Structure formats: C-alpha cells, structure tokens
Amino acid sequence: MGEEAKKDVAQLADQLAEGFTALSGEYQALFDQQKQLESKLSWAKQQYLDLLKRFTPSTLSQDHITFLQDLERVAEEQPRARLNVVDLLAQGDDVERKSRAVVIRQAEVAAAALRAPNEDAGVRIWSGPQADPQTISSNTQTSSVSSPMEKDFTALGTPK
C-alpha cells in the first residue's frame, strides 16, 4: 500500500508540475500581450496629445489634459472584478490555450488532492500530548456489557 501511495503522490506532483508549466506559458503570453497593448496605448495617447496641441487653442488643450488625467484617475479607482482565468482560457478559440486550461485544471485537482489529509497514510500517535484525535469506528465501539456471561460478573456502582 505504501508503494502505491508513493506512485499516487508522484503522479499528482507530475500533474502539478505540468500545470505550473502551462500556467507559466500562459502568464508569459499574457505579459507579452499586456506590454504590446501598453505600447500601443502610449503611442495613441501621444499622437492624440500632439494633434490636440496643433489644432486647438492652448486653453482648450489644457482642459483636455485635465480631462485625460481625470479619466486615468477614474480608471485606477474602479474595482476590478475577479475573473476565473482558466474558464476564460477554456472558452477561447485558441486550441493551445484550451489545452493549457485543461492541464491547469488537472493541476488544481492534483494540488487539492495533495493538500487533502490522508488518514490511512503515516504513523498514528495513540497517546501523549501530540496524540492524533481518535476516531472510533463501528467495530471498535464496545458497550459496557457485551455478553451474557459478562452480565453475571458485572456489578453496577462504584468500586470500594
């Protein structure tokens, strides 16, 4: 039984490692996409401000700059909803991302299985300050009187 448990743990660890690799790849793709979008947004904002300076009076230009600053402030203050990224990956059109989502889900299941306490594995401490909590199974439960012969020799009350 111990050898089988080691194989199960090794398999769960492998799934966890594969999930981490898939998650790392997805993170890198999203990070690259974010950098690209930030670059495009910065370029578009700079183009807009350059055009604004050329074709409007200076007072109107200052109003637009304060307007843009207010937009940035509002965007920072908005709370971001927590999205399940794995579900979003699974719903996409990209086959590679869908397969990453499957691997990540398997890794989540493996991580949960590794975190779950396994009552059969390991050594139990029966007494002392570090003793494991006792779980009484149905076969180990005994009543105070278990047989007719015992009834004859059992006296109720306290010992003297």
From TrEMBL:
Q: Where is this region: Disordered?
A: 124-160
Q: Where is the composition biased (Low complexity)?
A: 135-147
What name goes with this protein?
Uncharacterized protein
Supply the source organism for this entry.
Answer: Didymella heteroderae
Which lineage do the record's taxonomy fields give for this organism? Answer: Eukaryota, Fungi, Dikarya, Ascomycota, Pezizomycotina
